[in-house]
Amino acid sequence: MSESEVTMNLELETYPPMFRQQNNQSSTHWKVIEPVRESELTIPVIDLHCLSPEELGGACRDWGLFRLVNHGVPSTLLRQLHEHAKELFSLSFECKKKIFCSPLSYIWGTIATSPSGAAILTGPQNIHWVEGIHFPLGQLSQLQPQDHMLASFGLLVEEYGRHLGRLGRTIFKTMAMELNLDPGESETHLGESTGFLRVYRYPLRSMANSAWGIDVHTDSSVLSILNQYEVGGLEVLKDNQWLQVKPISDELIVNLGDMMQAISNDKYKSVKHRVRLDKHRDRISIGYFVFPEEGSVIRSSKYKPFTYGDFQAQVHQDIKAHGFKVGLERFELT
Ligand SMILES: O=C(O)CCC(=O)C(=O)O
Ligand SMILES: [Fe+2]
Asked: Whose CA is closest to 86, among 288, 283, 287?
């Protein structure tokens, strides 16, 4: 066996068995429509130092997504997070299953989790080619890892979580102002204690029987904040055209989720997006997801009043029954 074959086999052991078994099967997903490069259409850039409600509102209405600059998250922190994440993912699958235990969870083949963080699988025909570590931010104080690599990563995650909590609050407050939401009511629409961080690794395209790490979806969150660091793959739907989101190591991508669309009475958009696997490198990305407080009722003229808990239960029911999320449509007033 050549040296590269040995390395390849060793790397294979770092992936979930489900990925190793699937990768020789023929694919039904190869017809891929090429997206447009970002330079041909420009994603809005929002500067946190001089945050303008009008500009922010414009980006949320037209795109449901923007790049955030001057966000105050140190670039060294982003670099350290990515370097540590790479090391953690290169542990064997068995080892990862052991160390990413409560309050964390280790998920693969899906991005849907129950409130306890357990993976909800969508069925073999609908695998997401991604593995992820789920960090519930409200429970990180319970994290007492034996593994020193995970212990130092946990500290970085805590620090990053504090920064992203600050960003989420600032952005949400400005959105609420721009939308003229009742301050008393909108306060409960952002509940930081139920927020989580996801650290993902996507395998090389050659390993998968699909081009997609994550298929087309909208997030269920109020806000999601992503960093794709150096390997791109995120694509967003804008005016019926798919657009590649270029990776810029220091920048954060904010995308609005279904809860924000409902809170805004459909003035803002929950943006459709997907993740394409890279041909040459595996890909690490880090996402922050924040939701309404538990029990907070979202009222609007478009949807029946519902809580995030109601929404999540419906999503899980649809995934189990149909293999996919139906989303806000389920709550529309007819
Ligand atoms: O990895 C990414 O860039 C995006 C992940 C994502 O869309 C999600 O977790 O909902
Ligand atoms: Fe997403």
From this structure: 283
Q: Tens of pLDDT along 128-161?
A: 999 999 999 999 999 988 899 999 999 999 999 9
User: How far does the centroid of ligand 2 lie from the alpha carbon of residue 51, in Å?
Assistant: 24
The verdict on ipTM greater than 0.95 is yes
8, two tokens: 């390849």
CA distances from 253 to 38, 46, 225 (A): 13, 10, 6
Question: Ligand 1 pocket test: which of 67, 81, 111 has the largest number of ligand atoms within 8 Å of its C-beta?
Answer: 111
* CATH number 3.90.1640.10 is the correct assignment for the domain at 8-21+32-326: no
25: its two tokens: 């099967």
Q: Which two tokens stand for residue 227?
A: 């960093």
What is the chain's length? Answer: 334
Taking only the tens place, the pLDDT of each residue in 261-277 is 999 999 999 999 999 99
Cβ of residue 274 lying under 6 Å from some atom of ligand 1: no
Q: Structure pTM?
A: 0.93
Centroid of ligand 2 to alpha carbon of 3 (angstroms) = 37
| Domain range list for the chain | 8-21+32-326
